[in-house]
Amino acid sequence: MAEAPIVQIRALRKSFGANEVLKGIDLSVARGEVVALIGRSGSGKSTLLRCINGLETFQAGDLAVDGQALRHGHAAAMRELRQHVGMVFQSFNLFPHLSVGRNIMLAPGLVKGRAQAEGEARARTLLERVGLADKFDAWPDQLSGGQQQRVAIARALAMDPAVLLCDEITSALDPELVGEVLKVVESLADEGMTLLMVTHEMGFARKVADRVVFMHAGRIHEMGPPAELFERPQTPELQQFLSALH
Amino acid sequence: MVDFSLWDIVRNLLLAARWTVLLSLTAFVGGGLVGLGLLIARIARWPGADRAVGAYVQVFQGTPLLMQLFLAYFGLALLGWNVSAWVAAALALTLYTSAFLCEIWRGCVLAIPKGQWEASASLALSLGEQLRHVIGPQALKIAVPPTVGFLVQVVKGTALASVIGFIELTKAGTMITNATFRPFTVYACVAALYFALCFPISLWSRRLERKLHRG
Asked: What is the mean pLDDT of residues B100-113?
């Protein structure tokens, strides 16, 4: 029997006022799967991602992570769910008043009650993993964008999430810094981390993703393994989207 | 006729200035606590808190402090509570201060980028933890200059408590003038004492600002 999916989304609808941005999304993500969400800006891909950890509320449908249903306005349930979902943002969002090490240790200490020494050891291990072993005591504003984003990834991983959401995490980076961040994400994928990423890096999506989801006008328009989707796009919308990139 | 030396004048003013300091401290500590409570109620979106606190702030910002003092003094008496001038002044100034500080600090919290809220929420922090560990420390940094600036306003605002008969620096000045017939000398001393209270606060604010900028 197949394992239960990590993320299960059913008939999800989301509107901003009168503007419906997600028009019935069905998607399930298996453990260890790497899913890339692509599509034009405004197609709803970032909004979908933000629904998964409750940063956006939705009007209809169900969403569950690791078998746990998302319940808006229910503080204890949200706190529990968010411990299973890590998120990395386009603009890093490191806490500027805390050192790199403290950025990573804050949430595990508060939410999981992880002891100081254990938290510090864990933070150092994670920093080493993202190639920043010497930056434990540095301040966020002393780091380059690529380094800040790698710290943000380490910070998310410190909560031991079942799935990591990446929202255009290289879009705010200088081109020469994109590679170092993608390398970290790729290593996570290789280690079996479940990843859901909104990305404009098609080459990367193709190389790393198990499945690519093309969103268009608030719906999942086309979905499949990257080789298939990029080589033989079925719909004119995807064909147009892909040709516009070249 | 009794002759008053300059030292007599200054000594009596200094004695009265203790009440100005005490009234300022009471207003500031009380107003700070009430203002913080109102701000948290608003941020935590307690039912009705946003509107109620907004209205509260508008009322105290939109009416003269002098009227608030009159209303506290005479209004409470009408309700059957005979409060002393000290209680009325402390109450009015506390409420007045709380409204302004609530609004000043709300602006500081709003100035923190949305990404800080989102990142800390994504890490499963509760609202209290977000405020205490992520938003609060950053908002505090930008809150220092406007808060201390307002503290100076409060110190000077306590002068209005003289109209309901509370004997602080200004009221003492009026009384001494009536006895000495030397209004210019007396009020110059009064002004100098207010300056002596406010100027160090401003200096301290500037120092603090520089320190926070570096840290």
From this structure: 97
Give the closest-approach CA distance of B201 to chain A in angstroms. Answer: 26
Question: In this prediction, does ipTM exceed 0.90?
Answer: yes
pLDDT band at A85 (very low <50, low <70, confident <90, very high): very high
Specify the residue for token string 């892909």.
Answer: A242
Q: How far is B40 from chain A (nearest CA, A)?
A: 17
Q: How many angstroms separate the CA atoms of B62 and A25, rounded?
A: 50
Q: Of the candidates B182, B200, B150, which has an alpha carbon nearest to the alpha carbon of residue B13?
A: B182
Select from B113, B125, B138 the Cβ nearest to the Cβ of A107. Answer: B125
Residue whose tokens read 């940063």 = A55
Q: Which of A89, A107, A155 sits opposite B124 (nearest CB)?
A: A107
Which domains occur in chain B, in start order? 6-214 (1.10.3720.10)
Instruction: Give per-residue pLDDT as tens, B56-105.
Output: 999 999 999 999 999 999 999 899 888 899 999 999 999 999 999 999 99
Residues A6 and A114 reside in one and the same domain: no
pTM for the model stands at 0.90
Hey, are the CB atoms on A96 and B133 less than 8 Å from each other? no
CA nearest to A198, candidates A81, A60, A27: A27
pLDDT tens sequence across A207-225:
999 999 999 999 999 999 9
So what's the pLDDT on residue B82? 87
Interface touch A97/B121, C-beta < 8 Å: no
Looking at the structure of chain A, the number of domains it has is 2
